[in-house]
Amino acid sequence: MLKILPAILLFALLAVGCAGYRTVIFEFDSATGLDRQTGEPEKLHYNPTPERWPWWVRHTEGSGFDWFAVFAFGLAPSPRVVENPSGYARERLAELPELAAGDLQRNAQVASRLLWIAESDEDHALNQVIAIRGMAVIMRAYKIDPLSLPRPREESPAVQQAHLRDRRFLASMWPGQRARRLTAEDRSAYIEALQRLSALPASQPRMGRDLLRDLAYRLPQEGDNQLYRGTREAMRAVLGMELSEGLKKALGSSAAVVREEATLALYELSGPTAVPYCLAALQKRSTGAALFDPSPEMRRSLIRICGQLRGPVLDQSYPLVPGIQGPSPLRFLYETAHSDRVEGLRTVAKEAISFCTGRPISFELTEIDQAWREHMNTLAETSRSGTEGGR
Predict the structure, then answer these.
(1) DSSP SS3 for 51
(2) Which among 57, 200, 298, 368 could bridge 53 via Cys, Cβ 3.0 to 4.6 Å?
């Protein structure tokens, strides 16, 4: 047996070749202190000695040899020193969305971790960027448009208490906790609690992540067909809403690279209509109206995105707060061309305005002002024609 062991191992490595989902998520959790039962630790801290399986068990997951090795030789994970704990966790986080592809439960498990890192790891912007990219992978797979979903619940004690009440009720009825056979009334109450919890995003990100994690953990244990369907539907709804809110929340990051990644993801997932939303969100956090965002790199990225737009979306705006609109993409370009502190950005904005308005490229402010006036006059005439036609 020992003589053929190397051959078996070589075959298993050639057949599989990389760590699988269960191994990678176990190692990520060990590196971050995430516990399946208690959830996230109070403070994110990367463990310098995470537990790992022996490399040849890691790389044979799913081949059958991994379980053979565990039971035959008594192998188990053991603490291993890593030089860069944050990078170690990041590598595993980057792998998870692809490993979870096509499996709703696994995607929910992964999403809760991506959302956690995107919100909590402010000391490592690269980790947040990787988390946002993973969130976008899942959202693309499930065709989630982050701007088409409802806004979060009101953040009030009463709303939070109602959320926790429904969570406690579900916990008392989870598979394994049921003291008796469920009646029709029990099933109805259970489904109604699921529907209430999944109707709107949670009022606090942590509450949404905890709910998503609970639903993903309990789903495979559910033996009642009706409740299995209800739990799965609720999990799918919560997945979309919490990912959408997490992506929008990333626009408020203190790191420009994180804001840029979130903007690009929103633009990809929601299309051109995401641009007015992002401009409003970014201006809301800015210290100067003409800046729109404190980072020159971020403003350059916004100019490039706005320069690709054509048609009515150029003049669309999104409310900063009720009654106050954010800037339209064309207004952002116009004000940037006039007043940005960086000369190079003023130049790029002038070029973008020429592209958007279909005029010859010009870097003269007089020409830009003329293009702006003509565009606004055309817009006003179109608005008047529409009003008169509707009478």
Answers:
(1) strand
(2) 57
Distance CA 345, CA 295 (A): 11
Rounded to whole angstroms, the Cα distance separating 162 from 26 reads 33
Residue 270 and residue 343 share a domain: yes
d(CA 363, CA 338): 11
What is the reported pLDDT for 289? 46
> What is the per-residue pLDDT across 6-28, written as a single tens digit (0 to 9) for each?
555 554 444 444 578 988 999 99
Rounded to the nearest 10 degrees, the angle between the axes of helix 256-270 and helix 274-285 is 160
Is residue 363 a contact partner of residue 351, using CB atoms and an 8 Å limit?
A: yes
- pLDDT tens for each residue of 101-126: 999 999 999 999 999 999 999 999 99
Which residues, 6+ apart, have CB-to-CB distance to 154 below 8 Å? 203
Per the structure, the count of domains in the chain is 3
Do 109 and 240 reside in the same domain of the chain? Answer: yes
Residue 253 lies in a domain: no
Say yes or no: 309 and 289 in one domain: yes
Total Cβ atoms within 10 A of residue 151: 11
Buried/exposed code over 282-314 (b: 16+ C-beta within 10 A; e: otherwise): bbeebeeeebbbebeebbbbbbebbbebeeebb
State residue 240's pLDDT score: 97
Domain around 124: 100-147+163-175+185-246
Closest by alpha carbon to 251, among 114, 110, 118? Answer: 118
The answer as to whether 17 is a domain residue is: yes
Q: Over 314-339, what HEC string results?
A: HHCCCEEECCEECCCHHHHHHHHHHH
Lookup: tokens for 28: 């990520």
Q: Does one domain contain both 240 and 262?
A: no
282 occurs within a structural domain: yes
Cα separation, 339 vs 126, whole angstroms: 31
pLDDT tens-digit readout, 138-197: 999 999 999 998 888 777 888 889 999 999 999 888 887 777 788 999 999 999 999 999
Tally Cβ neighbours within 10 Å of residue 56.
15
Same-domain check for residues 290 and 220:
no
